[in-house]
């Protein structure tokens, strides 16, 4: 069941793109909107509904994993793409969120009550750090420099409800995006790249788990003379 648990657990966020962190480029979160519209429930009824919903999502995921062939080969782009597609199918069928949607929800919930732009940007950095995201482009420093420039111009801290000041800041962010070659219309491409990186990282973890399990089994007397199987030949469906 170790393979199954790893496959259906929440994806661990390992990589990211700074574009996901921009509030003005937020991805739509239809699922969360639906959650907000549900009537309030109390006590046992709420717990029962949560249990049934989780059970339904679990069974949906298991049903897909029993049908789809997954090759544990993080070095094979085709295997990584296949794995990513399987995970995407599970998210769609089980009504789960993608990694970028999880990140965006975290940003929205953590920054909802933040009044000033500086604390907002620092909170984004904190979220990025805690989730293991990388800022390979150096976008954070550029964004903070842009904020410094605007606050120097207006001679006071920039508040998020300052429409004129925020317009100036967002204009600076647009310049940064242009300099870095980031375009709003490319968001789907960035999300796809993110999902592929996560898929590769998860396959690497699965491969590590499989090798450790086989090494442990080989230490047992009855398996001493048995050759270790090639991880790529394992069919996860046999472990479900």
Defining key terms:
240 residues; mainly alpha; 9 helices; disordered N terminus; MGP1
**Overall mean pLDDT score?**
79
Largest sheet: none
Helical amount among residues, as a percent range?
55-70%
Shape: elongated
Coiled coil: 189-220
Organism: Trapa incisa
InterPro entries: MGP1 (IPR031432)
Protein name: ATP synthase 24 kDa subunit, mitochondrial
Please characterize this protein's 3D structure:
The chain is mainly alpha-helical and about 240 residues long. The protein has 9 helices and no strands. It has helices at about 1-10, 30-35, 45-65, 75-95, 100-110, 115-130, 140-155, 165-180, 185-220. It is elongated and about 75 Å long. It comes from Trapa incisa. This is ATP synthase 24 kDa subunit, mitochondrial.
């Amino acid at each position: 069941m170790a393979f199954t648990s790893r496959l259906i657990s929440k994806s661990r966020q390992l990589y990211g793109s700074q574009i996901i962190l921009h509030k003005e480029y937020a991805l739509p979160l239809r699922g969360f909107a639906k959650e907000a519209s549900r009537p309030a429930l109390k006590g046992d009824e709420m717990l029962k509904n949560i249990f049934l919903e989780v059970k339904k999502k679990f069974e949906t995921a298991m049903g897909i994993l029993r049908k789809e062939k997954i090759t544990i080969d993080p070095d094979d782009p085709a295997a990584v793409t296949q794995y990513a597609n399987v995970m995407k199918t599970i998210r769609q069928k089980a009504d789960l969120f993608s990694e970028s949607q999880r990140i965006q929800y975290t940003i929205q919930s953590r920054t909802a009550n933040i009044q000033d732009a500086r604390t907002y940007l620092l909170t984004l950095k904190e979220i990025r750090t805690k989730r293991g995201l990388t800022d390979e482009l150096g976008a954070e420093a550029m964004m903070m420099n842009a904020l410094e420039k605007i606050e120097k111009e207006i001679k006071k801290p920039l508040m998020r409800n300052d429409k004129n000041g925020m317009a100036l800041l967002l204009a600076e962010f647009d310049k940064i995006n242009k300099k870095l070659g980031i375009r709003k219309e490319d968001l789907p491409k960035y999300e796809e790249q993110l999902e592929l990186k996560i898929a590769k990282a998860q396959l690497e973890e699965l491969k590590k788990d499989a090798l450790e399990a086989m090494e442990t089994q080989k230490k047992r007397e009855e398996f001493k003379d048995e050759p270790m199987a090639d991880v790529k030949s394992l069919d996860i469906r046999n472990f479900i």
